[in-house]
Amino acid sequence: MRGMLEPELLLQEARENVEAAQSYRRELGHRLQGLREAQRQIKESASQTRDVLRQHFNDLKGTLGKLLDERLVTLLQEVDTIEQETIKPLDDCQKLIEHGVTTAEDLVREGEVAILGGLGEQNEKLWSFTKKAAHIQLDSLPEVPLLVDVPCLSAQLDDSILNIVKDHIFKHGTVASRPPVQIEELIEKPGGIIVRWCKVDDDFTAQDYRLQFRKCTSNHFEDVYVGSETEFIVLHIDPNVDYQFRVCARGDGRQEWSPWSVPQTGHSTLVPHEWTTGFEGYSLSSRRNIALRNDSESSGVLYSSAPTYFCGQTLTFRVETVGQPDRRDSIGVCAEKQNGWDSLQRDQAVCVSTNGAVFVNGKEMTNQLPAVTSGSTVTFDIEAVTLGTASANEGGNFKLRVTISSNNREVVFDWLLDQCCGSLYFGCSFFYPGWKVLVF
Prior knowledge:
Layout: H1 2-116, H2 123-136, H3 160-171, E1 181-189, E2 192-199, E3 206-215, E4 222-227, E5 231-235, E6 243-251, E7 264-266, E8 282-284, E9 290-293, E10 302-303, E11 309-310, E12 314-321, E13 330-334, E14 349-352, E15 357-360, E16 363-368, E17 377-384, E18 398-406, E19 409-417, E20 423-429, E21 436-439
Antiparallel strand pairs: 1-2, 2-5, 3-4, 3-6, 6-7, 8-9, 9-21, 10-20, 11-20, 12-17, 12-21, 13-14, 13-20, 14-15, 15-16, 17-18, 18-19
């Protein structure tokens, strides 16, 4: 018997070793794939960085050459202008003197002829010459400026600009081994994804962040957030579709953005929250996550299309626009739809009125939240407290721990239900038009 058992044990051990080796090989394969992706990221980012540097410095050289050419043209034009403006009076003076020389030469020749004729029959010529000489004013000479009084053009060129430019060029541009910010966490939400990021460069002081996303099937990233926060919920996310996210930062006092972070891929498996369609008095957005109260004639509670809120999640309502408030207004959750009520201020429901009053199973609590205004967010966080027997659950009641937050204030209480609820409906009711609420 022992002789038969030992081979079986040996065979079993061999099989286990084969399975362990196969698992080990698979894990090594995953690590090898990850290593190749890391190598590819280094090589591709290095190649891209080289291209960016070459292109930037080529553009810089072209721009600097153009600027130097433009400056040279400007200075040459200044030389031309000064030359033209200051040479003209001298040219006019030259013409005047040359005309005087010609006149004097003609007068000399005429005078010599008159003198040679003597006083006889040439007397008339002498008289004419003398009269002509007196008219010319031979003692009047034009003034010629001294060389020190006329422009002597020169160019003042400070060679220290080369040192200044050289210092700037030597300090221009840096190469970083990694971007200063990286995406830290992607958290799925119904119809959305919360994106969180953080700085990884302690020497970098961020003034603003810029978040972009795209479907993995798209080639184009689009801006979804610019601001100083390090967290943002990206809405209008289709379930079970991969999206890529990337973030960059702008340094304090700077205009340019940093390099992009390494793109991270995320998706949401949670069904988006939607309001019920076709309910009189409300119109919905195309994705049915925004409800607008547009008719004051009808009344009633607008519910979610399905019980899509599960304990452990955070349900958020954001009030986009406000209308006239009413104490019967309500935003909240309930165990089931109950038609015929004009508010969630009823049994088996918890809600907040637009004036900040909190209602649990139709009873108003002492604690109150701030009144709802345009841009306010109201969040519900619900956790199951007990799931035991009837005696352990206070006579068969099911207890939930509810936290409602609004405008940095919160109330916490236990909510008793008649039976266990794996999921909840949400709803709202407004008695006057103008209220618009987004749910996510």
